[in-house]
Design brief:
By secondary structure, this protein is an all-alpha fold. The protein is about 70% helix and about 0% strand.
């Protein structure tokens, strides 16, 4: 197990290096520091002196990769690539283009994102799997047909409809919860109710159809026929045998969601005024704050690779046929 984990970590290093290099090229080669300065200062009537001052305040006046004027190791360290890319591997995100500490902002904004993402993930997964099993139980009936139609309709509706419709119906007409805002206190729990409901509804249709397909594939396998031949009820077959053997594709789908638990939902946080990492990224893009965007891209890559590792390890817990040699 330890050897397998070490190999997977070793595989992840080139991937992170590749992401880092591509991000560096996009931000500092395709879009030069002079271009970034003009975007922040205004493209019209900006002097070269103002551009040089802006670059000097943020360390963008250094050479990109190799500093021939420095001595020994500083030839590599006193560069934009080392200061803004290599240091990301130690999770030293530095300061944003506006002068704020990015690590501090991430540590503060991750909690609102988790407060929304965790309930959406846990409740949504439990609800989706349960409903998909019920639909699979009534397969071939009118209930199954209408359930698929409703799921396709829900999938065809944009997530913006659920957000705006939920704000109007639950927040404005019924006045049950606030339309937007956030508070970390116990009283602030009312702020997360509507985003959680919207987040669950937005993924419910697609999730039910996906898991229903997985369960129907398992139902037609030999071990299910054997279980039925032994006299087990259809309920036991579905909720014990089929569910357990369908966990591998379920876990594979879950890994895609794991980075979002920390990174937040860009659209949801923006519409509901939640000060999480999703809105943090949107605000950085709007302000052309490339330091924050670079940091969030790298952090998202790390979380996704970590999620893949957890998924592979969890396979051994749900399927004894899988061995990590």
């Amino acid at each position: 197990m330890i050897g397998y984990i070490l190999r997977r970590i070793a595989y992840a290093v080139p991937i992170l290096i590749g992401v880092n290099v591509i991000t560096f090229v996009l931000f500092f080669v395709v879009n030069s520091p002079d271009d970034m300065a003009r975007l922040h200062l205004g493209e019209r009537r900006v002097t070269q002196a103002a551009i040089d001052k802006w670059k000097g305040e943020r360390g963008y006046d250094k050479p990109l990769i190799w500093n021939s004027d420095a001595k020994s190791v500083e030839k590599l360290r006193d560069t934009i690539f080392y200061s803004n890319s290599i240091r990301l591997f130690s999770f030293k995100f530095g300061q944003s283009d506006s002068g704020r500490d990015i690590s501090y902002d991430i540590s503060q904004r991750m909690w609102p994102s988790l407060a929304i993402a965790l309930p959406v993930f846990m409740v949504g997964l439990l609800l989706t799997i349960t409903l998909a099993l019920i639909v699979a139980f009534f397969r071939g009936t009118y209930f199954d047909t209408w359930a698929v139609i409703v799921c396709v309709a829900m999938m065809s509706i944009s997530s913006l409809f659920y957000i705006i419709g939920g704000q109007y119906l639950i927040g404005k007409l019924l006045h049950l919860v606030p339309i937007s805002g956030f508070d970390m206190s116990m009283i602030g729990a009312k702020f997360i109710v509507l985003p959680v409901i919207v987040g669950i509804l937005g993924h419910l249709g697609g999730g039910i159809r996906w898991y229903r397909t997985i369960f129907l594939e398992e139902i037609n396998k030999d071990y299910v026929r054997t279980a039925r031949a032994k006299g087990l009820s259809e309920r036991s077959v579905l909720f014990v045998h089929v569910l357990r053997n369908a966990m591998i594709p379920i876990l594979t789908g879950v890994v895609v969601v794991l980075p979002m638990l920390f990174m937040g939902s860009l659209i949801t946080e923006a519409f509901f005024g939640i000060p999480g990492l999703g809105s943090y990224t949107i605000e950085a893009i709007q302000r052309q704050d490339f330091a924050i965007v670079r940091s969030m891209v790298f952090l998202g890559s790390c979380l996704y690779i970590f999620g893949l590792l957890l998924t592979d390890i969890s396979y051994t817990l749900v399927d004894p046929r899988v061995r990590l040699d």
